[in-house]
Specification:
5-stranded mixed β-sheet; alpha+beta; 506 residues; elongated; 64% helix; Rhopdopsin 7-helix transmembrane proteins
């Protein structure tokens, strides 16, 4: 079962990579290596069952083929910058071909022939590991170095775990575990090459944890059902490995079915979309529709507004009556307000390309405070600065982030009509292996009720008589685009605190 698990895992990984349709050499070389492992392991699995020379030959051929295919994969993994050149791959290809040729000669009957082939294969794999080690040592601190560093640790760890099987020769009755250890190693390599967005160790653990929980859940469900309907229950190891294979097979099976259904039923594109994914898809479609509709909507409203404002301004210059001039002032003021509403709607709806630059967030906050202090609404407000001057730089769009701070601060000032204290605080946060900063904006105003605080980031929700309800929704969207988080806490009649977290640059 241990051998079959490795054979099935390598086949599923190779098949999954082929299904994705990616034509790059890295994915192709890893798929070829996994196919070779599959051929070797299936030969090892079937050899004792059929007792045929064919499967013995297939096992030797698989062992010989691993060397050039592994070297080719590690050459692409190191971006052709290691000492594994085309020439090295070619030499090992010739050696493996000569080994395959010798299988049909009398040489294959030598007593140590199998040991020679295994030594040759392990030598090639050791060469791959040394090449990767030297390549990683040359890399500057980066995401790639971190990801490949995990592989440097995982490879010897898999070898050490596999040595547990050697204790069976000493009389210990341990279940075979080599196949499971190598399956886990192949899956880790798949994550490294197929998911470049994963670069933290906890990201890889999270992916592995999903597979582990799915495997464990499948095993528990099987035993639960088997207890009721069968008295012949297989071993726990067999069920666990079967569940593992099912867990990692779900994605490729889904891909096959999706491609098949899209061919025969091209209109049934959402058959395999889960309810949660369907909701997310609807949200994305609504956002795209809103982005397309917003400019047309703004154009159709702004044109008549401009005409109304122009006519009101003309009539005001021609009207001697003070009462009529006051009415025309109201028209002009309301037109300006509607124009501001349209601008806010456009800011929320249209996609915006961030101009990110690494800079000190304190500088942006100081600029925002200068603008706030000059506002007549802040005359009775005491502004307190608690800025940490040892912060790492963050990558932000200065104009967009200025808009966030001003929006939150002006809301806070409006919540303190009788005066109060507005506090800006920045601090350093340790977030995993990378740093982060926090920005806190606190007021001593009227606060927000529990019912209202649940909705303050929703578009068009407002408690103001003349508000639009898009300010905080825009703030949340901009912060999400920066990869940050915004939270709020409030106590009615005591004040409100907005907390923003941003990852440090680099």
């Amino acid at each position: 079962m241990d051998t079959f698990t490795l054979a099935a895992t390598s086949f599923i990984i190779a098949f999954s990579l082929m299904l994705t349709g990616k034509k790059d050499k890295l994915h192709g070389s890893f798929a070829a290596l996994c196919t070779t492992v599959f051929i070797l392991q299936i030969a090892v699995f079937l050899r004792p069952i059929f007792a045929s020379e064919f499967w013995v030959t297939a096992e030797y051929m698989g062992s010989l083929a691993i060397a050039p295919f592994a070297l080719r994969f590690f050459r692409h993994l190191t971006r052709n910058k290691s000492f594994i050149s085309r020439g090295v791959v070619f030499i090992f290809t010739i050696l493996s071909s000569a080994g395959v040729f010798s299988l049909f000669m009398a040489v294959s009957e030598l007593p140590h022939f199998k040991a020679i082939i295994l030594s040759y294969t392990f030598s090639a794999l050791a060469l791959c590991y040394i090449a990767l080690l030297l390549h990683v040592n040359k890399l500057p601190p980066s995401t790639e170095k971190k990801r490949l560093g995990y592989l440097l640790v995982a490879c010897p760890l898999a070898v050490i775990v596999s040595t547990i099987d050697l204790f069976s020769y000493l009389g210990f009755n341990f279940p075979p575990i080599t196949g499971l250890a190598l399956s886990a190693l192949l899956y880790l390599i798949l994550l490294i090459i197929a998911y470049p967005q994963l670069h933290e160790l906890h990201d890889f653990f999270a992916r592995a944890l999903v597979i582990f929980i799915s495997t464990l859940a499948g095993t528990i469900i099987f035993y639960f059902v088997a207890l009721f309907f069968s008295s012949n229950i297989p071993s726990f190891t067999s069920v666990l490995m079967a569940s593992f294979l099912i867990a990692i097979s779900l994605s490729p099976i889904k891909m096959i079915l999706k491609k098949s259904f899209s061919y025969f039923y091209p209109d049934s594109k959402d058959v395999f979309t889960s309810l949660y994914e369907f909701d997310e898809k609807l949200e994305r479609e609504k956002a795209l529709m809103l982005a397309e509709m917003a400019p047309v909507f703004a154009h159709e409203i702004r044109n008549p507004l401009g005409s109304i404002k122009g006519a009101a301004q003309y009539l005001k210059s021609e009207t001697p009556s003070e009462e009529q001039q006051n009415l025309l002032d109201v028209i002009i003021e309301e037109v300006n307000r509607l124009n501001a509403v349209v601008n806010q709607f456009l800011d929320y709806a249209r996609p915006y390309k961030l101009d990110l630059k690494a800079q000190n967030i304190n500088v942006i906050i100081q600029k925002a405070i200068s603008i706030i202090a000059a506002n007549r609404l802040a005359e009775n407000i005491a502004i307190v600065r608690e800025l940490n001057h040892n912060l790492p730089e963050v990558e932000v769009d200065e104009q967009q982030f200025m808009q966030i701070i001003l929006n939150i601060a002006l809301n806070a000032i409006e919540a303190m009509p009788q005066g109060g204290t507005l506090t800006f605080r920045t601090s350093n946060i340790e977030s995993g292996t990378e740093g982060a900063i926090s920005i806190t904006i606190r007021d001593t105003g009227s606060g927000i009720s529990k019912e209202e605080i649940k909705n303050i980031f929703k578009p068009f929700f407002t408690t103001k008589k003349r508000g639009v309800g898009l300010g905080l929704a825009i703030c949340q969207r901009i912060i999400k685009e920066h990869g940050g988080i915004i939270r709020v806490k409030s106590i009615p009649a005591q004040g409100t605190v907005f907390f923003i977290k941003l990852n440090a640059a680099g």
